[in-house]
Amino acid sequence: MSAKTAPLHTPSELDLIGCNDRTNTVVFRSTSVSRPERPNVTTLDTITGAILCDCQGATTGRECWHADHIVAAWHQSPAMQAARWLSPVALVNQGRKCAAMVATYRQRVGRPLQDDVTALVAARSEWHRRAARAAADMPPAIIAEARAIVAQQEAMGHSDHALDAGRSGLTAYYDARDRLATLTLPLSA
Ligand SMILES: [Zn+2]
User: How deeply is 109 buried, as exposed, middle or buried, from its count of CB atoms within 10 A (0-12, 13-18, 19+)?
Assistant: First the structure.
């Protein structure tokens, strides 16, 4: 449910103050008009979309405009803007590189660099956004057909067979493989 006061506010009023790569959550702070001494803290789960806000409106079951703007605020962050323009392969490489950096720092000095954590959470968030959209775009029958094409081509050793089958076979193979990759490439640390 959208807050009546949402149009009076913008995503830029929310400041990103933290990311957690173990929960894939991002935390934003915003100034509270009713309680200037205590800012509001709003958390977004970038995978499930769940939102938690400690403002008076949210905690008393009334309206919370932060929930209306937090997703846009996250997508406007520099880390998400950078992830958005990466190719599928570059996005997965970026996610894996960040995951390796986070793991290395956590092991050696006890905690990872915040920039690495932010970039990792952004890569996962962007990957999930694309996977969800690709899945929504593709009817199950098309997914099954793409899987069948990939399995068949790979079983036959795709390059030789694709040459025989000609350009359309090759195109169908790469198209199916790319679309499947969007759906199935894992990005967990
Ligand atoms: Zn709120």
Answer: exposed
Q: Cα of 60 to ligand 1 centre, how many Å?
A: 10
pLDDT single digits (tens) 89-120? 899 889 989 999 999 999 999 999 999 999 99
Give the neighbor-by-neighbor strand order of the sheet with 51-53: 15-20, 25-30, 40-45, 51-53
pTM listed for this prediction? 0.76
**pLDDT-based confidence at residue 186 (cuts at 50, 70, 90):** low
Whether residue 71 is found in the same domain as residue 104 = no
Q: Are residues 150 and 109 in the same domain?
A: no
Domain span including residue 86: 78-137
Q: How far is the CA of 63 from the centre of ligand 1 (A)?
A: 7
What is the number of structural domains in the chain?
3
Rounded Cα distance, 179 and 176, in Å: 5
Look at residue 173 and tell me if it is in a domain: yes
Instruction: Output the CA 53–ligand 1 centroid distance in Å.
Output: 5
